[in-house]
Write a structure and sequence with these properties.
Chains: A alpha/beta (about 375), B mainly alpha (about 290), C mainly alpha (about 280)
Radius of gyration of chain C: 21 Å
Distance between the termini of chain B: 30 Å
Strand order of the largest sheet of chain C: 1-2
Number of domains of chain B: 1
Shape of chain B: globular
Largest sheet of chain B: none
Structural class of chain C: mainly alpha
Number of strands of chain B: 0
Shape of chain C: globular
Radius of gyration of chain B: 20 Å
Oligomer: heterotrimer
Structural class of chain B: mainly alpha
Number of domains of chain C: 1
Distance between the termini of chain C: 26 Å
Largest sheet of chain C: 2 strands, antiparallel
Strand content of chain B: under 5%
Order of helices and strands of chain B: HHHHHHHHHHHHHH
């Protein structure tokens, strides 16, 4: 991995001062005279780095501190403590140099000029960033090829649909060829076709243009398609920094492999190990156990903290047994994330994720806020 | 008028005496809900204290600046269109009082274009309360406090300086005139708000309208040529806000360029105008197709 | 980023200048371009300007029906002043609101963050936009002025020197106005959702700068008060010079006061931009 860190967050913290109200009308009037201020910690000790050409998804429930983190990395917010370094620049200290290095899209907020056709907004940004004409044209052509902008870029922005506008915003944020891109929920509210188009565009930017992308999203399909690595943040702290596989493993990413064994000798062998009632551990099957058995039909599942992923397990099972029929079941990522969001795991400590992320998790909790 | 499913009124909903069976009807209930939401809105505005205090100041500044302007005309050009100073003062103060009441009770229509743009209107469509009322309950107009303080002061001064004796009939007519004026102003802005459903740029016009009413609503229109005063009577009917009713009260009834009966009927015309503007508004609402994006 | 310096190969002085110019032109052009793309809005502007001019002409002629002179102004002067005030007020009476492009809207929708993400300081961008707005508005004013001259509601300046002094004073006045408007916009960083406040501040400012009526008519306490405020320096002074209520000899003192206001307001707004920036940086827009 070419991990020369392009984005670095070192112990980033942000504390907001907010005014709290006192209850009742009298209280409100009293607050008018002497407001009561309270410090609210939005982000605490966030630490991670992203390498060149890497796409990192910053995940977490609403209000977890994702946007605050992104804002600190773009230089809009000054951290209360800690340090951010983006492409060698401390964003809030050297705003102008930082501006040339980064592109940013904040969800539904557009940077395009409402009354002008999108293409004229591009031209304005070209001049603001001082992009040479030749490069500008080449880039516009590239973006048009990927996002099909020319269908609507002569329409005034106020008349564009959400999907069209965000595509234009994406293009606008990359016109000056920034090596680092921050995207705060870019695909929110888009239809599936446009979402797919945007994902292809992002893949292209990461793989072909070697850009470093930091993305926040609530769309788990997006995470699965795009992110090699995720940072999970909750209550302002990092809960996990690793691959999707790690998230699955830590937050009840259970799987099951249902196999019908073809060789009676194998069935017998499993039968011999049975008896205690719990999952059956087999020799050479680290982390994989037999959960149930009915004759030749065997259900394998993960055992212990260090279990392999479903694909690794599959390899082991097929390698070891002769299998007549096979089916996989894996918890989908949304269930895993729900478990992750709801769990109160202390930051970065290996803990056995006890909650099995089944449908029994209280659904509304992940939608609140 | 069942508030239980109205998201904006959730605190009120919690106290709602009826939970499910049969939505309660009746004016009393509706007013209780309006009162509760207004109280909440008022508290919400208190949250931002700088803004709250500024809001009051802003209302007062607005009215004072109109007073100053009117007083300039009065002192520099006495006998304005054949009106005595105290009579002109009555026009100005009636208009200001009407304006203050309009801001307090019905002024939110002026923000329709913003509310549409921000998508505030869309959720209103699915709540069980008239949309117009929900718009009016969008926030509490803090500046109305300043507006009314100055207006009431000026109104009292105008009554004291007036040489007419205030019989019960005249007092009733003054009250009706002020309410009618409030309704005329509300009607004008409601009609503009009807357009705001479909055109985003109405703020341009409502700003102008507010300026026109500030500058031309507070003194006798008889100083203007016929065409202009006719325009202010029939096209942008700001003559009905204060000029006509004050003229009737001060005995200028026959010399205002319109049949006296029309001037006397000002309060009624205000009511009619408001009803018509509400119909127009509802018609426009039915054709509302939502905001883009 | 270091690898990317290739894309800006040591910008030679003239190119850098040319880039800066085209950048400035492009940004200044944003508002006019939006207006040109919206013919209904242009029509609305024309209608409003015409109606407003007619109204003030009627009003002041009506007021002077029984008087020859008031506060040192005769009818021609008063009408001329009023018409010019309506026109001049038009210079920055553009409706950026419809384009979601006012500072308060950027703050409300959170799009202000982009001002702080570009390689151009927000105050610079603001200034260039304002310049474009002024120039575009000036086109309207010029058209209206020529028309008013032709119809005879405005008399031409009494002499060439009056015209010259007026031009300078008007420019200074527009600068003061620019800073006053900026002050109002900057206030939005601290008080959100004060749309009403903005409208009314604009009205109060119009009143104090003598748009609705020349300050000469106002009571003494009011004139004294406005001497300590920047508003009269925006329009009251230049227009009074035009109609001859302030003589050319007295004009220079007034222009010095305008200049002082420009300096004071420039310093104040600069501080406020810094503080606004810090506020954005502390709260995240």
């Amino acid at each position: 991995m070419p991990l020369s860190a392009v984005i670095e967050a070192r112990g980033l913290s942000k504390v907001f001062q907010t005014t709290v109200r006192r209850p009742g009308l009298g209280g409100a009037l009293r607050s008018l005279v002497s407001p009561r201020r309270v410090a609210k910690v939005a982000v605490q000790d966030v630490e991670f780095s992203v390498g060149k050409g890497e796409l990192l998804a910053l995940l977490g429930p609403n209000g977890a501190g994702k946007s605050t983190t992104i804002k600190m990395l773009t230089g809009i917010l000054t951290p209360t403590s800690g340090e951010a370094l983006v492409a060698g620049v401390v964003p809030h200290r050297d705003r102008e140099r930082n501006a040339h290095n980064i592109g940013a899209v904040f969800g539904q907020r557009t940077q395009l000029w409402w009354d002008l056709p999108a293409r004229e907004s591009f031209a304005i940004l070209r001049d603001i960033y001082g992009v040479p004409e030749g490069q500008y044209r080449a880039r516009i052509e590239e973006f048009d090829g990927l996002l099909e902008l020319s269908e609507f870029w002569d329409t005034r922005v106020r008349h564009l649909s959400l999907g069209q506008r965000v595509r234009c915003d994406l293009a606008a944020s990359l016109l000056h060829d920034p090596p680092v891109v921050f995207l705060d929920e870019p695909t929110i509210g888009m239809d599936v076709v446009v979402k797919e188009q945007v994902r292809r565009f992002l893949r292209h930017q990461v793989e072909e243009r070697d850009r470093t992308v930091l993305l926040t999203t609530h769309d788990m399909t997006e995470v699965e398609r795009l992110a090699e690595r995720v940072v999970l943040i909750n209550h302002g702290r990092i809960v996990l920094d690793g691959s999707l596989h790690e998230i699955r493993r830590r937050f009840g990413g259970t799987w099951q492999v249902r196999a019908t064994l073809a060789d009676p000798a194998d069935v017998e062998e499993i039968g011999r190990s049975e008896g205690t009632g719990g999952p059956v551990a087999l020799p050479g099957f680290a982390g994989i156990g037999v959960l149930r058995r009915e004759g030749p039909r065997v259900v394998f599942g993960p055992v212990g903290a260090d279990s392999p992923s479903v694909h690794e397990a599959l390899k082991v099972i097929i390698g070891r047994f002769r299998v007549a029929d096979l089916a996989l079941e894996e918890n989908d990522l949304e269930d895993v994330m729900r478990a992750a969001y709801l769990s109160d795991v202390p930051a970065q400590e290996p803990a056995a994720a006890s909650t099995s992320a089944s449908a029994s998790a209280p659904a509304p909790a992940s939608q609140g806020g | 008028m069942n508030p239980t499913t109205s998201p904006s009124a959730s605190p009120a909903a919690a106290e709602s005496p009826t939970s499910r069976p049969g939505p309660p009807h009746g004016a009393a209930h509706a007013w209780r809900v309006v009162w509760r939401i207004t109280k909440l809105n008022f508290k919400a505005r208190l949250e931002y204290r700088g803004e709250f205090l500024m809001g009051i100041a802003v209302g007062a500044i607005w009215q004072v600046s109109i007073v100053v302007f009117a007083s300039v005309l009065l002192t520099r050009f006495p006998g304005l269109g054949g009106w005595s100073s105290s009579d002109v003062l009555l026009i100005a103060s009636m208009r200001m009082l009407a304006h203050g009441l309009y801001v307090l009770f019905l002024g939110r229509v002026q923000y329709m274009n913003l509310l549409v743009q921000e998508g505030v209107v869309d959720p209103c469509l699915i709540r069980p309360m008239p949309v117009y009322r929900q718009i009016q309950l969008a926030f509490f107009p803090v500046n109305a406090i300043g507006d009314l303080v100055v207006a009431v002061g000026l109104f009292v001064a105008a009554l004291q300086r007036s040489s007419h004796d205030w019989t019960a009939g005249r007092i009733t007519y003054v009250v009706a005139g002020v309410l009618g004026g409030m309704l005329v102003e509300a009607a004008l802005f409601t009609a503009l708000a009807a357009a705001a459903f479909h055109f985003p740029a109405t703020s341009y016009w409502s700003q102008w309208l507010e300026e026109l009413m500030g500058t031309f609503g507070s003194y006798p229109l008889s100083i203007l040529p016929k065409a202009a005063s006719a325009a202010f009577t029939f096209i942008v009917p700001l003559a009905f806000i204060a000029y006509f009713p004050a003229g009737v009260l001060t005995g200028h009834g026959g010399a205002m360029g319109v049949p006296e009966a029309l001037a006397v009927a000002s309060p009624f015309i205000g009511l009619m105008a408001f009803v018509l503007s509400r119909l127009l508004w509802s018609w426009s609402l039915r054709r509302y197709t939502g905001v883009n994006g | 980023m270091t690898a990317r310096t290739t894309q800006a190969p040591a910008p030679a002085a003239p190119t850098a200048f040319a880039t800066a110019v085209s950048r400035a032109r492009r940004i200044a052009w944003i508002t006019p371009r939006g207006e040109l793309l919206a013919p209904p809005r242009m029509t609305a502007t024309a209608v409003r300007l015409l109606v407003q001019v007619c109204l003030v002409v009627y009003l002041w002629r009506g007021l002077y029906a029984n008087t020859d002179s008031s506060a040192g102004l005769d009818e021609t002067q008063a009408v001329g002043y009023a018409v010019l005030a309506v026109l001049a007020n038009r210079i920055r009476g553009l409706d950026r609101r419809a384009g979601r492009d006012t500072v308060i809207q950027h703050l409300h929708f959170g799009t202000i963050v982009y001002w702080y993400l570009r390689p151009m300081r927000p105050q610079r961008y603001y200034a260039l936009r304002a310049l474009g707005d002024q120039l575009y508005g000036f086109g309207w004013v010029l058209a209206g002025y020529v028309l008013s001259l032709a119809v005879g509601v405005v008399a031409p300046p009494a002499s060439l020197s009056v015209a010259g002094v007026f031009t300078v004073s008007m420019l200074l006045g527009q600068l003061v106005l620019y800073y006053v408007m900026m002050l109002v916009d900057l206030l939005c960083f601290w008080t959100l959702r004060n749309e009403a406040a903005l409208l009314i501040l604009v009205f109060a400012q119009n009143l104090l700068s003598g748009v609705y009526a020349p300050l000469w008519y106002f009571p003494d306490w009011f004139i004294t008060l406005s001497m300590f405020l920047p508003f009269q320096a925006t329009l009251g002074v230049p227009l009074s010079i035009y109609v001859g209520r302030i003589g050319v000899d007295d004009a220079f003192g007034q222009m010095a006061i305008q200049a002082v206001w420009i300096v004071l307001l420039a310093l104040l707004t600069r501080r406020l931009w810094d503080r606004a920036g810090r506020r954005v940086v502390a709260q995240g827009g």
